[in-house]
Write a structure and sequence with these properties.
Strand order of the largest sheet: 1-2-3-12-11-4-5-8-7-6
Structural class: alpha+beta
Number of helices: 21
Helix content: 40-55%
Number of strands: 12
Length: 431
């Protein structure tokens, strides 16, 4: 257990700030966001850990959210109890445990009152290879904080409202600054994915692009090659969040400048000019990650290469191919009377179930905000004529029925999808 000597407190704005041994900074808080964490399930678990004399603190993103005045979406916990000790607590009290895959890394997930509680034993890295780490369990909170990637992610929040901050994470959060814990190059070499995590949290925390520390950028540049050993799936998880976060165009440009892009599946000659243009189009439109990323790509082959490296989903790949195909070939100027009609015609003619969603992404890419709003309110009309209608008119040939349906559909589309069945059937010319 870490023994800390408390120095004389300094009172500021009704908050008690304490500077403690080993550079530990603490403060007390009791905000409404903090109080929302205390569900019946957590209260039960907290009592059990306290009874067994194990410390339990909130860790990670929930601490950042609470300090930023946001309601935390997911709450993770850290503890001095080992996985075996946690299992003993839960087994003897009849609390269900789920998802045992994390146990070798020190994580036990308990389920209580319809809520999952992911609790991880404090750890130190023994061996790292740039992808994974072999860990040993500890009861030293400072050592656990030391192994984390960024200062803003290395804070803990006690259930009594005490913030524990060993590396100035709170000051960085207030200043909207993203820094690695300790030496940036060392943190990156422990897990090269931390390069992308830096970019992601930069977009999440920092208000303006271009406010990077020179030492951090140099460490990223020197270690960019290490991303080649990281799996495509892990890279894509981070890259997706970067693409739809703040400063995405700036951050992707920076990836190219620092030599990161080639190791994460982005095309060597990515179209950065197009990216910057499209990024401006996409402001406040909530694009999908692929809608942003496609701006870098030149051809369907680029989409296929991206898929080979990042293992994107079938839906994401199809969206990429769709956008590459239609971003230049389809526009509202194709129909003088109704600029939306080329897009609705494409939807009408398609058999894809998600075609309307794809066309919405296309309009976002093109910056067609007015047409996008119209399409989002548009309901796909049903073509009123069927093969059965034509059979009743005495047309029996399947080939002939197909030809008539195509002709009638074209007439219906030209009418703005307004022509009724009876009128359409008068256009049928029997052979």
């Amino acid at each position: 257990m870490l023994l800390i000597r408390v120095f004389k407190p300094l009172i500021r704005s009704s908050v008690c700030y304490l500077w403690l041994k080993r550079s530990l900074f603490t403060m007390q808080l009791n905000t409404k966001e903090f109080q929302t964490v205390f569900t019946p399930g957590l209260k039960t678990i907290a009592e059990l850990f306290e009874k067994e004399k194990f410390e339990l603190r909130i860790a990670g993103g929930a601490v950042r959210d609470i300090l930023n005045g946001k309601l935390p979406q997911d709450v993770d916990f850290a503890t001095t109890a080992t996985p075996d000790e946690m299992k003993h607590i839960f087994q003897t009290t009849g609390i269900r445990m789920i998802n045992n895959k994390g146990e070798k890394h020190g994580t036990i997930t308990a389920r209580l009152h319809e809520q999952n509680f992911e609790i991880t034993t404090l750890r130190v890295d023994v061996v790292t290879d740039g992808r994974h780490a072999e860990v040993e369990f500890t009861t030293d909170w400072h050592k656990d904080a030391e192994r984390r990637d960024l200062t803003i992610n290395s804070m803990f929040l006690g259930l009594d409202g005490t913030l524990y901050d060993y590396f100035d994470g709170y000051e960085d959060l207030k200043s909207k600054r993203v820094r690695f814990v300790g030496n940036a190059a060392e943190r990156i070499q422990e897990d090269y994915l931390r390069i992308l995590r830096y970019f992601r949290f930069y977009g999440k925390i920092v208000e303006e692009p271009g406010e990077h520390e020179a030492e951090t950028l140099e460490a990223i540049k020197e270690n960019a090659r290490g991303l080649a050993v990281i799996s495509g799936e892990r890279i894509w998880v981070e890259l997706k969040k970067i693409l739809v976060g703040n400063h995405a165009a700036h951050l992707v440009n920076l990836m190219y400048e620092l030599g990161v892009a080639e190791y994460i599946g982005l095309p060597v000659s990515g179209n950065l000019e197009e990216l910057n243009r499209v990024w401006n189009n996409l402001q406040n439109l909530c694009p999908k990650p692929m809608t942003v990323l496609v701006s870098l790509l030149q051809s369907p082959e680029d989409v296929n290469k991206l898929d080979l490296r990042l293992k994107i989903s079938k839906e994401e790949k199809n969206l990429g191919l769709f956008l590459v195909k239609y971003r230049r070939d389809l526009s509202g100027t194709d129909n003088n009377g109704d600029p939306l009609k080329p897009y609705t015609d494409l939807i009408i003619d398609s058999r894809e179930t998600d075609i309307q969603s794809k066309v919405c992404e296309l309009l976002k890419y093109q910056g067609e905000v007015k047409l996008l709003k119209e399409l989002e309110q548009w309901s796909v009309p049903r073509f009123p004529v069927s093969g059965h209608d034509l059979r009743k008119m005495g047309i029996s040939s399947g080939k002939e029925i197909g030809e008539h349906l195509l002709q009638l559909r074209d007439i219906w589309k030209k009418s703005g999808y307004k022509m009724e069945k009876e009128e359409l059937l008068t256009k049928v010319q029997k052979k």
